[in-house]
Fold Carboxysome shell carbonic anhydrase.
Amino acid sequence: MIRRHAHRDNLIWASGAGAAPSPAATVGDARQASPRKPGGWEPAPAAPRTEDTVSRPSVQDTAPLAPSRERRPPHRARRHVPGTVTQPHPLTNRSTNEQLRTYEQGVRAAFDQIVPTLKQISALHCEPDFTQRAQQLAQRELGFELPNGILDDAWIAGLDLRRLYAWSLFETYRRMADDFFARDPLRGRETTAFDEFLQSCGFHLMDITPCADGRLAHAISYVLRLPIGAVRRKSYAGTLFDVEETVEKWVEVEHQRFREGRPNTADTSTRYLKVVMYHFSSLDPEHQGCAAHGSDDGLAARAGLERLHHFRQAIENSFCCGASVALLLIGLDTDTDAIRVHLPDERGEMDLNQSVDAQALYDQTHNLTPEAARQGILEAVCAAAPDTADEGMVRLVARLVENNLSQIEYVRTLQGGGYPDAGHAERFMAVGIGFEEIQLRNLTYFAYLHTVEEGAPDLDVGCRIFDGLNVSHGLPIPVVVRFDYHGRVPGARERAVERARRLDRALADRFRVRVQQGLLHRMLVVRDCDAGSGLEVVSTSVDPQPAGGH
């Protein structure tokens, strides 16, 4: 069962204005269909740089928090109905919560305005001055103009609302991404403090694989409250990350330590930390869990743990001198954003029936002083950890749990006790390599891949999700094809563009019927990650097609 998001309900209008012309099977050369004006986008204030925690009087006779061992099997998600918060938690960063909320509301409002605006425009298409009035309306409500060609041709076969929807969504995404890279609104580049803390715990890199489900897209900046520049994120359906690709990343990181001393020198006793984040639903566990695992939370946890073990074994089998990695498994309740963490022993083994539950700790430590609450979290983490657990891992998990308390309160207070979109409500699919600017829940479904063949399972899961969200209402599936490149490498941009075009051709072939019906549109973009600049749009399937000739 896929729960629809309200902003796309009852959209039969999308296909009711006559037959839309079929787009070409592949994206053509880039053309600027209409001016892309900078107005309309109102960026949110950047997140604050300082902490703002709530102080409470110290209570001398406060008893130590009883250590708790969470033995609930991962497939038996506890039904939890969040209550309202009358008093902030002592460890909650309220100012950051307000800033994150402002940023989230601004981005979502831009995407949510697309459908209402196009509905208004569709009601005008028989007017004699339609193009002029439509552009004025789009500029006022969306902040940019629409392709004149689509508007001018509306009198022939009706207004092609599928193309207009795709174009509007692509332009909204481009503007959001450019704003993100220009302003760093989530302060993701401020990494020094966390880098130092991570290394003090015995790790030189934190590599996180959340599920590709859009309800985990905010895992870094919101759920864990980590700077995105300090961690590596790469999402896969069902958290089934590519072991070989991750081994290559490990080699790259270790080589960088040896040659450049970054993030620390090779003789420093730290390890590469690989983290998997699976997910479950406490409110509807049988339907709103991980689609890749049939909403079976136990299967999702076991699959993530197995993939972690494969990665560790690959490193140990392939490299000498005691090469190894650290492993960590985290579960996320997508209804409350509370995490549960399965701590490993010294060999990376984890008991899936034992975890530390941030939701329970939020309630247990709510009335304590900040110092007592922090100590209570540490005691609970120690109690849930195996006897041979690494001390640095315990410290790191305690920090992650503490960070997560702010997100739990964010959902309880600023989201009215729970998310209105408990199920899928993604706006577009992100395919290729990149997308670090996507840090909001339920905005994007990820499919990190180089070729359609290797990413077929992720793509198929994504299309099933969007068949319910968009296609069932007559709207197309918007797909952003993206490849980042290093501008310092000669020819890197040209190769990135060719990869995007090759992937686009494969997408058009695999989903030929949807493409022919105008139910799958693509935008091809590349980005120079060395320059730190915004996106470069290569082309879109909405661009005008070349006129015929001899």
Summary: The chain has 16 helices and eleven strands.
